[in-house]
Amino acid sequence: MKSAVETLNPTRVRLTVEVPFEELKDSLDAAYKKINQQVTVKGFRKGKIPARVIDQRFGRGAVLEEAVNDALPKFYTEAVNEGELNVLGQPEVDITELKDGELLAFTAEVDVRPEIEIPDYSGIEVTVDALEVSDEDVEKAVEQLRERFASTNPVERAAAEGDVVTIDLQAKVDGEVLEDGVAEGVSYTIGSGELLDGIDAAVTGLEAGGEATFTSELKGGSAEGKEAEVTVKVSAVAARELPELDDEFAQMASEFDTLDELKTDSRKRLENTKQYDQATQAQERVLDELLKLAEVPIPEKLLADEVQTRKHNLEHHQLGQMGLTLDKYLEIQGKTVEEFDAETSEQAIKGIKTQFILDEIVNKEKLNVNQEELTEHLMRRAASSGMSPDQFAQAVVEGGQVPMLVGEVARGKALAVVVEAAKVVDTNGEVVDLEDDEEAAEEAVEAAEGTTDAAAEAAEEKNEA
């Protein structure tokens, strides 16, 4: 076999391959054997039909077609290896010559990873938010905990903001009560904004037994998006009572004996959260600066496939789970289809550039992923998918997604290397020591590549199947 590589552009090549006919012998033998098992000729046992009879009855062309289809993947792979190509996606193959007994010639056009020169990233400098936790932040956290331990007591008075009311609802559109527009015994906290627009004003001031009518756009159900006349009847009013902020509350709501100890712990938790957020912010901003430094040609077909994948994941997973169509989502976002397409393309380009550059750094720095790192990453992804680690791992393996996870971890390690070489300061001008936060780096890479949910979605699809 002879092969030659022609570079069409920085991301696409054409392979020209010539195969002497004798190298097709194994594929020809396999073709005759396959046809033998599929056809019947009077006078011959099944599987024992001579090759000359198959040629006479079914045509030599059918045999050659079967043999070439069998042989092409092998010769294409040999040509790719011989040319030391890093191919992307499936090739477009064209058979240019097929002379029986003499020669098979074909061309294959395919996208390849572009050669990228890794930029000097040692001079990258970024600014992140300062790590500050105020007394107000602590008070807010404690107040949220206090809200969780609130109790409700029935009251005989008009309902006011913050009260919990028990209500019955009936929605009409064009004067007709909707089949799915009736609900009884619904518990609702006035001011929470969890039900229909206008309901807070309607129930405020009503006592048990009172009712009111208001109009509102329905947020779901058979008449979603339509204006409805809604009748609400209050059957009970209860006041929420918050526990006193004292040592007794601390003992009830936590493992601490005093309120001061609870506040100290809350401050520490907030500091840890802000420290992680600071690390993630640093990773993302360093990555943005890295992408600005490198010229990365983008393969057109790869970009088109990536854009299509992102649209599919958005429509069939994220929006599907929320009960939204793409049109409704764009309406809520206030975006046109053209704006959405441009934004998706921009995100896809960033994802591809991120992958190409960080993969080059992985190779340059000879970074490896060990079993412990992969397991930790898998556990985190399983938690975010809502599946058990065992279910997620099985689905990932069966779906062939393990290389994707390995790549995510490796690229996270590569970004961590770049961040370590960069200068990170906070808004106060203080140098930030991020230590070795590879988890934050992995999340930054996933966000840039748009793969945050990809493995989980693939796993879910496999699990559902």
UniProtKB/TrEMBL annotation:
Residue ranges of every copy of the PPIase FKBP-type domain listed in the record: 162-215
Cell location: Cytoplasm
Entry-linked InterPro entries: PPIase_dom_sf, PPIase_FKBP_dom, Trig_fac, Trigger_fac_C, Trigger_fac_C_sf, Trigger_fac_ribosome-bd_bac, Trigger_fac_ribosome-bd_sf, Trigger_fact/SurA_dom_sf
The keyword Transferase belongs to this UniProt entry's keyword annotation: no
Biased composition (Low complexity): 447-457
SUPFAM superfamilies (UniProt xref): FKBP-like (SSF54534), Triger factor/SurA peptide-binding domain-like (SSF109998), Trigger factor ribosome-binding domain (SSF102735)
UniProt keyword Isomerase, yes or no: yes
Disordered, as annotated region: 434-465
EC number, UniProt record: 5.2.1.8
Compositionally biased residues, Acidic residues: 434-446
Primary location class: cytoplasm
Keyword terms: Cell cycle, Cell division, Chaperone, Cytoplasm, Isomerase, Rotamase
Record field: catalytic activity: [protein]-peptidylproline (omega=180) = [protein]-peptidylproline (omega=0)
Role, per record: Involved in protein export. Acts as a chaperone by maintaining the newly synthesized protein in an open conformation. Functions as a peptidyl-prolyl cis-trans isomerase.
Annotated domain remarks: Consists of 3 domains; the N-terminus binds the ribosome, the middle domain has PPIase activity, while the C-terminus has intrinsic chaperone activity on its own.
Homology family: Belongs to the FKBP-type PPIase family. Tig subfamily.
NCBIfam families: tig
Protein name: Trigger factor
